[in-house]
Design goal:
Elements: H1 4-25, E1 28-29, H2 30-37, H3 41-53, E2 57-64, E3 67-74, E4 80-86, E5 90-97, E6 102-109, H4 116-134, E7 141-148, H5 173-181, E8 185-189, H6 190-201, E9 210-215, E10 219-225, E11 228-230, H7 261-264, H8 266-277, H9 283-291, H10 295-319, E12 323-327, H11 335-348, H12 351-355, E13 358-361, H13 368-379, H14 383-388
Parallel strand pairs: 4-7, 7-8, 9-12, 12-13
Antiparallel strand pairs: 1-3, 2-3, 4-5, 5-6, 9-10, 10-11
Helix pairs in contact: 2-3, 6-13, 9-10, 10-11
Length: about 400
């Protein structure tokens, strides 16, 4: 026979399970909450009523399967999260609430040669500007998700060696930004955040296992296994760009020869077209001209797709994901690149794994990483703070 204390603990645990499910998904019907948490429909109904009365969740009418239903989401004024994404040539910041609504978003160019300190100065300024523009209560900022274009050591939080932002190597981005903003900061690399963004808001919705492939100045993959980002013990999981395609191929920045990156990344691909298309060529321009029918650009995009497909086939054989989402500028090429990727997967992957795989372009474009940063901040929040009506104890340092 349970004591009152144990019943109270069980009730509290059930409250947290419901809040966690809603927080991670953004919104769920009560039936979906029951399936996600394993709680009975009656228990979920009672808990949702309690959470609504306490102001933690909001309930709106919706439909599911042609039937009337109630959609449950966290209260829009329960707290605020911030996403910060450092790209190879940009800084993007977004502000969202706990109901997964983006309240403000802005992007600006970032000099890739700028020092880490200058980059964080810019990020702090842009965060403050958006906070002021939206008029949100600074005391309600629950956390920040931060994306950087390089591997993060899981234990130390240190940014590893990267050719995209070489001046940042050895820095601790989360610690630096936390010192400036005075709230919890959670950091991850851009490919992982792209995967998280597409999983929550984009082409990865509804699946539990996927790979997000980003082809830009480098090539990386964000891996989602059973609904969670897989980082590996050292934080370097997903370095698909360094799969060897040709042992006699070009020397890669990692020191090996013939890595996938040397056949697909912008720094290696653009020189193939610059003699005929000009020295200022960008991957965005190559994709645009390929879609307009330029034969040279179409050939290069197709070749890149076939090489990426070889890497995707390796992922299929090892991890058997149900979906691959292509991000970065290359995704805008549509079937010009997706067709060759599927062709290589069909040739090199185990047939059973290839049959189960869908390959889609990202739905979020250049926003995937910053929305993933918002999702990271949401996922790292403690559910007890929402139930108790308290936010993290760090003192906001916003000015």
């Amino acid at each position: 026979m349970e004591t009152p204390g144990s019943q109270s603990s069980l009730h509290r645990a059930n409250l947290e399970r419901v809040v966690r499910a809603v927080r991670l998904a953004g919104s769920l019907t009560q039936a979906e909450i029951a399936r996600t948490t394993g709680l009975s429909a009656a228990t979920v109904s009672n808990i949702v009523r309690e959470l609504k009365d306490g102001g933690t969740v909001q309930v709106t009418p919706t439909s599911a399967g042609g039937r009337r239903a109630r959609s449950v989401s966290l209260s829009g004024d329960a707290g605020i999260v911030i996403g910060v994404d450092f790209g190879h040539a940009h800084l993007r910041v977004a502000i969202g609430n706990l109901a997964h609504q983006v309240l403000a978003e802005e992007s600006e160019p970032l000099d890739v040669d700028a020092s880490a300190a200058q980059g964080f100065d810019r990020a702090e300024e842009l965060v403050n500007r958006l906070i002021d523009a939206t008029g949100v209560d600074r005391a309600k900022v629950a956390g920040v998700g931060l994306g950087v274009p390089g591997p993060i050591d899981v234990e130390s939080g240190t940014l590893g060696s990267t050719a995209i932002l070489p001046g940042w190597s050895g820095t601790r981005p989360a610690e630096e930004l936390r010192g400036r903003l005075g709230v919890p900061v959670h950091v991850d690399n851009d490919a992982n955040l792209g995967a998280l963004g597409e999983l929550v808001w984009g082409s990865g919705r509804g699946v539990r296992d996927l790979a997000y492939i980003k082809v830009a100045s480098g090539v990386g993959a964000g891996l989602v296994i059973n609904g969670k980002i897989y980082r590996g013990p050292g934080g370097t999981a997903g370095e698909i760009g360094h799969i060897t395609l040709d042992e006699s191929g070009p020397v890669c920045r990692c020191g090996n020869r013939g890595c996938l990156e040397t056949f697909t990344a912008a720094r290696y691909v653009l020189p193939l077209l610059q003699p005929s298309h000009g020295a200022d060529l960008t991957m965005e321009a190559v994709v645009r001209m390929a879609r307009d029918g330029d034969p040279g650009c179409r050939r290069v995009v197709a070749d890149v797709g076939r090489h990426v497909g070889s890497g995707v086939a390796n992922l299929c054989n090892l991890l058997n994901p149900s979906r691959v989402v292509l991000g970065g500028d290359l995704a805008e090429a549509g079937e010009l690149v997706l067709g060759p990727i599927r062709e290589s997967v069909g040739r090199y992957a185990i047939p059973s794994a290839a049959r189960q795989l869908s390959i889609l372009p990202g739905a979020l474009g250049g926003r995937a990483e910053v929305l993933g940063a918002l999702a990271l901040a949401l996922s790292e929040m403690g559910d007890s703070t929402l139930l108790d009506g308290t936010l993290p104890t760090a003192t906001p340092a916003f000015t």
